[in-house]
## 1
Amino acid sequence: MHPSEVLFQGKRQPLLLPACDHYAGSEKLMRKSMALQQELGPLFDITFDCEDGASAGEELEHAQLVVRLLNDESNCHNRIGVRVHDQSSEFFEGDVAFIVGGAASKLAYVVLPKADSVEDVARAIELINKHAAKGGRTAMLPVHVLIETHGALRDAYAIAALPQVECLSFGIMDFVSAHYGAIPANAMRTPGQFQHPLVVRAKLEIVAACHAHGKIPSHNVTTEIKDTAVVANDAQRAAAEFGFTRMWSIHPDQIKPIIKAFTPRLSEVHEATNILTEAIKANWGPTAQNGRLHDRASYRYYWSVLQRAKLAGLALPDAAIALVNHDTHTEST
């Protein structure tokens, strides 16, 4: 049995996705993002944006561009998704039909903006599945849902429970705007976004809903694109204080600071390696290190540290690599 099977005892493990979700709207930025992904590897996802990326009157042409790029050989990691128009838009069904139908096997996920209820999301998923099947996709196409309306926040727990939903992402700017001045503009940026009670409540409810169902909570955008220290600080606070495991990027310079902030420190990796090595020796029974007791509850935590480090491309020590690839059945036989 693999350590993950021992620690989770047949239960579904929490999903793991790259920590950075980079949005790109124009052809120039899409191609630049794809080139960077080729250079760095699948350490971050790219979301092609139809909602805000398509110029008025050129929605169909934009969808055609998205399909061409998704099917291009430069999409070698298959870690590119698309944000379609919202369901109230006249372009929503066309986006889904053309993009999902035309690139079903290459899409990593579909992002649904401005849903207002779990019923909205369920209807959208039904349409997505219809066109994914027509496009020849047999595997379930993951769906990411932007939580940016009162109704979506109310239904966050139910939305996260939908099997096809992989990620809930906080749309802070639309959420604040939906309060029509009751939340001040400074709550859309730091430090207000981490202090205003209504914004803090929204973030916590999204994170709690995701972790209850093993899904990915994605933190909102940082609009400061020149000062990467602000981006790094936002990402660190989102992870350490709120429990987010992923975050938006809207500029290539934001990608590396976000990845770094969500990547476990090397000292944590070494600690996790030592603890899990002793756990295996004890056949996953309780152990003690440095005067602290460890059992399967803490083993699950430290196992997730190694998984997140591996996903982020961190150079793992040999002992950690051995743990990730460990097979206790093979060893015992």
## 2
Amino acid sequence: MARPALLAVSHGTSDLDGARSIAALVARVADRMPDVDVREGFVDVQQPDAASALAAIDRPAVIVPLLLSQGFHVHHDLHGIASGRADAVVTAPLGPDSLLAEVLALRLDGIGRPGSPVVLAVAGSRDERSVPDAEGMAALLRARTGRRVDIGYLAARHPDLPTALAAAPDAVVATYLLGRGFFFDLAARQAGDHVITPPLLDDLQADDGIPEALVDLVVSRYEQAESRS
């Protein structure tokens, strides 16, 4: 019996490097799961849009949000399109998760400054469900590194990144974004003289820039949903 298809849905970006990193992640997932039909879709900017991508799948499907928290795109967009398909399910987003904490910790190790406090740069969402996810990710990073970890939002919520950095002037900035694009550019500007880590999908140790832990995480989300179906 064929396994369900995996539809990996990201936000979408006009930044070429950011788009390439997401495409590389999906390709790595497909390589890991040769017996699964792995597709890609987007909720904004890029094509195919998630609804069209799901409509093109003629078998049961597991939709994995390549997003870091609960929010409008997960609950409105993705659950919305899945509600019309009895054979489609939506997994939890990628964060918070200990695998992401591991990647963030490695990024921090790579820039030095051991023991410095950390401000976690989070995109931010007006959806209240995103708040415990961001706080949960900060707690996981705190437990993994033993450092002080505060949150600085890049949009929609407070404290914003400049305010969080003003309260921790010796902090480094941990970028809690998958790839490059508008929010990373904003974080880099607002970080000023503070050291900032690259996005999660920028792994200088990997040929394609994709940390193995991110592939593991997407596969895990799929397999958890598959086992419940």
## 3
Amino acid sequence: MAVDNVTSIDELTYRPEMPEHPRNIVSIGAGGIVQGSHYPAYKLAGFPVKAVYDLNPEAARKAAADWGVPHVASSVEELVAYGKRYDAVFDIAVPANATPDILRQLPDGAGVLIQKPMGESIEQAREILSICREKGLVAGINFQLRQAPYMIAVRDLIDRGVIGEVVDIDHRLVGTQPWNLWPFLFPKDRVEINYHSIHYIDNIRSLVGDPTAVYCKTMQHPKMRELAQTRTAIIMDYGDDLRVNLHINFNHDYAKDYQESILKIEGLKGAIRVKLGLMYDYPEGEPDRVEYITYDDGEWKELPVRGSWFNEAFIGTMGGLMKKLDDPSYVYMNSVEDAFHTMCVVEACYKSSAEGGIPVDYTE
């Protein structure tokens, strides 16, 4: 294959998972992520939202008014009834520890997309997986980064062998985060990995599969003691040939000049560099950028970017679920079974961080 040709939209795959016929959606939860990303993505994709419920009725009414949702339910039970009426997919975006109780109230065999994380611990993840299996739910977890159009294109580059065998991955984020937007995080024991780095862990799994082990340190910052963690370092162990490293620092508040949000992937024949623009001065963001180089060509080339993480990535997580409902043999990349492996890696990270490193022996 001529590497010059991969920049053609006809050659390179950007398209998210999409059903042949969109299904109706009903929402449980109408918070910022739903109004700011779910509904804009569903509008782009042509997925009709028929009803919404939230513990805060005002939030539900606002979402309905802003996005043309015809029904506002007054309870989960009423929302479930709307779901049955419209043969709808259930879109759940609630605090993770509330997910199991809601799942138990859904009709057996229903389609359901659950906002990440898959619970707040491996025990909750197992409970969610068990409920989905017992009720025969066709269920997915909304890990969106792997469904961002530029990440779909990156996986295509790798799958085509353009950069050869992947031998090195670095994900580096240095910047700040407006934590005040998520007040529910402040009392939690697990913050940074469970609610942010989990995206990068999941995305790396979508590129190179499951690690055998992890080494991790996640920690708070003296300037932000009210949050359990805002900085994390992770090594994902893939053996002797593939090095994977994550460096996350959400306390770099020294102006915007040296903020970073970069994914670098090196292979035996070339490399890929992705700028995740959303994370620069979040939520303002900057343009995304994808570049690649091969030894044959010898210079970096820029790929076109078709859509971003927010909001386009939310199309594929829901679209793939609808496609799975149409075709049970379809391999849905955001399934609860796959997401459970991401939660296993997250749990290992917390365990590694708690157990600490090997003490240095300075005995002479």
